[in-house]
Structure formats: structure tokens, C-alpha cells
Specification:
The complex is a heterodimer of chains A (about 325) and B (about 350). Helix content of chain A is about 35%, strand content about 15%. Chain A has 13 helices and eight strands. The relative contact order of chain A is 0.11. Chain B has about 350 residues and is an alpha+beta fold. Chain B contains eleven helices and twelve strands. In chain B, the strands form two sheets. Chain B has an eight-stranded mixed beta sheet. In chain B, strands 5-4-12-11 form a four-stranded antiparallel beta sheet, with no helix packed on it. In chain B, a hairpin with a 3-residue loop joins strand 11 and strand 12. Classes of the chains: A alpha/beta (about 325), B alpha+beta (about 350).
Amino acid sequence: MQEAIINKAKQLLADGTVDRVIGWKKGEFAYDITPAVFGSAEEIDADFVYDDFTSANVSKYLVKETKKEGKVLVFLKPCDTYSLNQLIKEHRVDREKVYVVGIPGGPKLDIEKIKAKGISGILSVKNENYTLKIETIYGEETMPFSEAILDKCASCKSKKHVVYDELIGEDGEVLESNRFDMVEQLENMTAEERYNFWREQLSKCIRCNACRNVCPACTCEKCVFDNPTSGVENKAASDSFEENMFHIIRAFHVAGRCTDCGECSRVCPQNIPLHLLNRKFIKDINSLYGEYQAGEDTTSRAPLTNYTFDDCEASIVHERGVE
Amino acid sequence: MLRISLDKIDELFEAVNSQQALYIPTDRKDGAAEYKKYESGMKMSNKLNTVRSAKDFFFPQTENLVEFKMEGKKIEVKDIREESEDFVIFGVRACDARSFTILDKVYLVEPVDSFYKNRRDHGTVVTMACTRPSETCFCQTFGIDPTAPEGDAACWSDGSFLYFKANTDKGQKFIDSISSLLDDGDTAELDKAIEKTKTIMSKLPLANLSTENFGGDKLNEYFNSDKWGELSESCLGCGTCTFVCPTCQCYDIKDFNTGDGIKRFRCWDSCMYSDFTKMAHGNPRLTQLERFRQRFMHKLVYFPKNNEGEFGCVGCGRCLSKCPISMNIVKVMKALEVK
């Protein structure tokens, strides 16, 4: 797949369709891949990579890139195309300035899950028939591919590309996913159990803002939490509940716009399952306003920003919130 | 050398804990390690390192500095400083131990930071030699020997025993306080274990990373390097690297309005944030490129310039594992290096 992608990139650069390419650049190790903009065939040959660790969703970079001159090529996995569509819908990306090539997605691997097995000193990771052969400075280790799959891929919602100019490989289908299972488990807890669950998780937060800054739905020019004149700027927590508030407010802010790309949880240095907050909103929107998938298209009205006579009554929403 | 059987480590922790507050790295439910206040039965993590560094003990993420109470036109200024309790941090790695030397150079020079000094004076650092370094480790680059860690007292494990050595008076006091549990023993097995670790250290992928071409005299070579653009282009501008870093030391001071007064606090700040260095006239670093450059120039050029060649990094590898886009000081050094 990497070869086909590289050839496509070089072809579209050579024929002048685009003047630069957003993709993934290989790192020092087998897994530390950085999103990057490539300007030439030489740069692509030297560093472009697409493998089991290229999990980063690069669609948000288009906000910045489409403000520049020229046209940019972007390779998007199915999940990433939902993010781009949502950005187009919100007028954050100029579609005319992007050439989208849809590529097959995951499942991608989570290096943290490999390290959690006690495997360290990792020199290379090879996938041989869904068994990972991991070469380390302490000798070779093996583990099943299935045990190292990134959480966001384990609950994949769709193999379908919702926006593209061309595809490499066959397009897939929207999947029956298990992504609301954990939300249901949380719903079935007592209020106290649920409170304790979230307190334990969110108290780990170091307020690094990685979740916000990676989120394709968070594209405000100036976040209210970074604005010293907003009155709510909070670089530090004034009490032990403030981190919880930050995440709850952020989840509200992206409700109805979050495509469930899973980047927030992937990048969290403290392994907080932030995506569960967003999924709770998605699940509630589905049940209260009808099935809705953010980013599925660029034209429909979103349930939370569109009044219809069929909307559920506010009292129903209220009742559901009562234990 | 004084040692205790690893079977008796619980007794050791209980003994320390009965005399002063004890903190050890322990595994959370999600498998990551973090320092926690010791409670009976708590097991020490065998992870290489904690997600958050040990700097938190001396330089916490948030702390209140002073309070103001207002009554009409009267303002009362309340000094809320309190003497810290004595405490022991056990199991600190050599990289984190060196980070205290770096933080000391900032906080213990005139004007001494009394909040930091208070905790430094009351804290005893007991280090633990590494036996299983990872591919992300590069403490050797900064002259740190993970088989001979600094700290007030150092300890080593050979798989059966924990061996102790004091590096400072405070460390000696710590060892004296647990001496009834320690026996003098032979170090043949330990010497073998240390040799093994040293062999591994020489084979680490970053073993040859050198600071030779960095330092205080390299300002002009690197400040205007054309590499900063591509190095910083995908930086998210989050503070992950800064907040997991054991040597990042910058903070912001703010006032919290309590309604009838003010709590003045300080909190960690990140040079990666857009309002860092924001002043009345505006911000001298307007783009992420400038913010990104600041972080690495500080560690590789400005800090050594002002601190007799000491670099502002200890090679712990946290930023290598935690940066959401996997950009880090190693990649920066390799890309920038002018020989």
C-alpha cells in the first residue's frame, strides 16, 4: 500500500495537480511517525511512510494548509474523511484547494499496548500473518496483532470514504460497530459509580490540551480557555473539579460535530478515555433526534443547530437526565 | 554493601513510612506508573519510568503563593507559606535525579525560591538504578550513568537484594533510619547485573547521540536554521512535552478572585502555548515556529549558556513516547546539527 500511495503522490506532484502533499513521515523508531508536508518526490522517497503505525488523522492540518496558495494533496483513511467533511461543512477548509485520495484505513497499532506487555527496547515491529514479531534489544518477542490494535480502530464505525477525488483500493461499507458498548455500561452504572469512574479518569488530566489541539472539531481561532480576557481562561485548576469541567465543556462544545475519530483518546498522555464523553452525546443525539453521523455529508442540517417540529421535547431530555 | 532482601521490601516501606511520608512509583489500573503516597500493601512499579516526572514533588503543577483579603479599603496580605513535612521519594531514576540539579540552578540561585527550597530541604531523594533501559532512553548523552544514579541515597537491585549507598548527609540519615533492616552483603551478583546493564546501554539506538555540537556558543548557527519550519510544521501547540518533562521549569502567576479577596497562584506554563510571554505590548513569539524553537533553543543553547554548559534535558525519553505527533528533542538535534 505504501508504494501505491507514494507513486500516486509523485504522479500528482509531477502532473501539477498539486504542489505539496500531506502525509506521514517516518521517525527514529518503528512507531514514532509525524504528520508532515512533502514538497517534492525526493522528500517523499526519503521519508514518506504508510504502515500499521500511521494512525494520525491529518485532516485538521488542512485548515492551515488551505489558507496557503496552491493545491494540497491529502491521503485520508475512511475515518479521516468524516473529519474533513465536517470541516468543509463548517467552512473551515476550502474544498477547492484540496485533492483527496482515499486510502484503506486500519486497524492501526497502538505502541502503548505493545509496551504494556512489558516489551521494551523496541527496534522493529513486523506484522507476519497477524502475529507481531517485535525485535528488541532484549531479544525477539511475539504477540497477536489483535491485542495491539488501537482502541479507535477496535471500534471502527466505517470503512467507507465519504469524501474523495479518487481512491486507492476498494471502498468499504459503514460497519455495525460495537462503539456504544462502553457507553451503555456507563449508563447502567449508578450515578455514584459513574461519578467515581469519571473522577478517577479525569483526575489524571495534566491539562496539556493535547485532546483539544488534535481535535478536528476544535478549530476556534482562539479557544476561550486560552483567552486571558475571556474571564474563564484556566491554565491551572482552581479546585479539584476543574479538569472535569474542562472536559465536560469541551464535549458539549463538539456535540453534534464530533465525528468520533478517536484522536482525543489516542493522544492523551494519561490514557483518559475521553472519546466516551463524545460517544455519550452521539448516542443521545441518535436516540433523541434520530440517527445522525457528523461528517457523513456536507449539506444536511445538524440536529442540535436545526429546529424541527419532530424534535423531542425539552422535558424528555430533562427526564432522561434524572436518575 | 548494605542490602535488604527484596522479599522484605514491604517491611522496608513500612519502616520508612512510619517515620516520614513516603512516595513510591506504583502501577495505576490502566497500567501506567505514577508516584503515590505509600499505603500498606502498595507495590512498587517495575516500569522504567512514571508518566509524570518526579519534579512534581518540588515544583507542583499548581500552588498558592499568597492571599489578599479585602475589607472595605483595607487589604490584608496573608503569607500562606508553611513548613513542608519531611518526605522520601523512593525509586527515582537517574534521569529524574539529575533534573533536580537542573531545577536547583533555576530555583536555588538568588533570589532563592522559598517555596521550592522548602520542599527541597524536606525531601529525601532515593534513586533506583536502571536495569532495563528502553529505546527512548538517552540519558548517556547528558553524561548520566543510570547504573550509578545521583540523589541523596542510591539503590540497586540484582533481582534478589536491594543495595544502598548514601550520596549526601540526608541520604546517610535515611540509611541510618532503616539500618536495623539492612545487612552487609557481598556485591558479586550486583556487579554482574550492573555490567549487563552497561552492555545494554552501549547498544541502545540513541547511544551515540551527542551534545558535542550544541551549547551556549551555538546561538547563531541554530537560531536562524531553515530546519525550524519543517520541524515545527505539525506541532499541535499542546503542552504535553512540557508537562511530562522533568526539567521544564516555566510557570505563570495569576490571581484568582475569591469574591472578597484574591488567591495568587502559580502554575506550570508551556512555551508551546499561544499566550506564553504575552505582555502588555503583545507577544514576541507570534507563530508556533517561534514557540517551538524557543523550547529547544532553551534546552540546547540558552540553558547551557547560562549554566556552565549544563543542558536542559536529561534524556528520560518521556517526550519521545508522549508527543501526540512524535516530534521531540532527539529529532530536533539530529535535524539541526551542524558539525
